[in-house]
Design goal:
The protein is an all-alpha fold and 116 residues long. The chain is built from eight helices and no strands.
Length: 116
């Protein structure tokens, strides 16, 4: 309703999947975005060109979805903890440390060559 989570990218999946499978994917994606934002991971690791999730950080999340954030605190936060900063640094670079994306057409050609 408030367009914090854009599921337009999954419209094609809706026709090719069973109804339950489709909504399972949508719920998993929402959980990913919500939890990673509650842990403030999106600040550093969010894809720059992604419009699937519009909430930027934990404070924004608390303001826009306070009831759901409380549910998160009462459930998920009691059983899961965010990854350590050191672990994330070993896995890869932050968004701010990545070079800008090259021309999209070149990128697509490279992917096609790898698939061949």
């Amino acid at each position: 309703e408030k367009n914090y989570f854009n599921i337009e990218n999954y419209v094609d999946d809706k026709d090719s999947l069973e109804r339950d499978e489709y909504w399972k994917i949508i719920m998993q994606k929402f959980a990913y975005w919500f939890i990673s934002t509650a842990w403030d991971l999106q600040v550093d690791y969010r894809p720059t060109e992604d419009d699937e999730w519009t909430i930027e950080d934990r404070d924004d999340l608390k303001e826009k979805m306070p009831e759901f954030y409380q549910v998160f605190l009462d459930t998920v936060a009691r059983s899961l903890s965010p990854p350590k900063k050191e672990t994330l640094e070993q896995l890869g670079k932050k968004r701010s440390e990545l070079p800008p994306l090259e021309d999209e057409e070149e990128y697509d050609d490279e992917d096609d060559e790898e698939e061949s």
